Amino acid sequence: MRLPSLNALRAFEAVGRTGSIKAASDELAVSPTVVSRHIRNLQLDLNVALVEAHGRGLLLTTAGEAFHAQISRAFDIMRQANEDIRPSSRRSLTIWCIPGIANQRLLARLPLLQSRLPNYDILLQPTLSRPDFARGEADAEVIHMNMLITHPNVRTELIAAPGVHAVASPAFRSRFPAVTQASDFLKLPLIHEASTLYWEQWFEYAGVTDLPILRGPRLWHAHLTIEAARQGQGVALANTLLVEDDLASGRLVDLSPHAVSLGGYYFVAAARRWADPELVLLRRWLKEALQGGAATGASDAPMRAE
């Protein structure tokens, strides 16, 4: 089957994304008349109405929205292929990572990763958002999940499953010496991340049922909940990787009556790039950073991706 004109498809993709003939023409560096002609010819070629007038702009029809979604993915693939094939003395490696681990475990260890990838610019993006690998938003991500969730064209590997501690400052602990079992924590001021879910899971794991509505501040990021605990504001949940130094130094104490494990840290990347040398090295570096080197062998150190 003959494909439509590539120029017409580019014009349609730009119009659908910007919602305007004028904006699309500015982006493509052609006149609005040319863009309008491309859209008209594309609709005639496909025998389908793709856009409709809406005020001073355009809206995609139902058929146009479905077609635009597929065309956009196709252009994303072409852009990525162009980026991958273009010769360059340096490339970038973009890692999306949840903020707590990025700050507490990865930042200080970045020079080691850079030494193993000397021809790459390392871009570490602390974020709670998930990247779209098909659009090339990231090369890899590190995320905390309670269970492995699979997606088409994406591979995932568990790289660390640390224990979870209920932590507070020594001064706070001295105010509540009678806290010895999980149900006692319901009487304490609890510090939450984005929601109360983490504490709800902790209570469920500990066998506490019929939970009341949990109260307390929501601070969104683990490093903020840990800092609030250091300041004596209440009890926070944090895994070993984030608080082991605080526990060792005595800045925080562990009030947990039982050892608890709630999920783990996963490495995620596009399946088609899973065996790329730079991603293999990245996984090994992450295991060293999150597992103290236990997951790597002696032969890993000299290996480099050029």
UniProtKB/TrEMBL annotation:
- InterPro entries in the record, alphabetically? LysR-type_TF_proteobact-type (IPR058163), LysR_HTH_N (IPR000847), LysR_subst-bd (IPR005119), WH-like_DNA-bd_sf (IPR036388), WH_DNA-bd_sf (IPR036390)
GO BP annotations listed:
DNA-templated transcription
Name the PROSITE patterns for this protein.
Answer: HTH_LYSR (PS50931)
Keywords attached to this Swiss-Prot or TrEMBL record, sorted alphabetically, are: DNA-binding, Transcription, Transcription regulation
Q: What superkingdom does the record give? A: Bacteria
Task: Extract the SUPFAM superfamilies matched here.
Answer: Periplasmic binding protein-like II, Winged helix' DNA-binding domain
| HTH lysR-type domain: residues covered | 4-61
Recorded hits in Pfam families, A to Z, give: HTH_1, LysR_substrate
Query: Recorded GO terms, molecular function?
Result: DNA-binding transcription factor activity; sequence-specific DNA binding
Recorded family membership: Belongs to the LysR transcriptional regulatory family.
What name does this protein carry?
LysR family transcriptional regulator
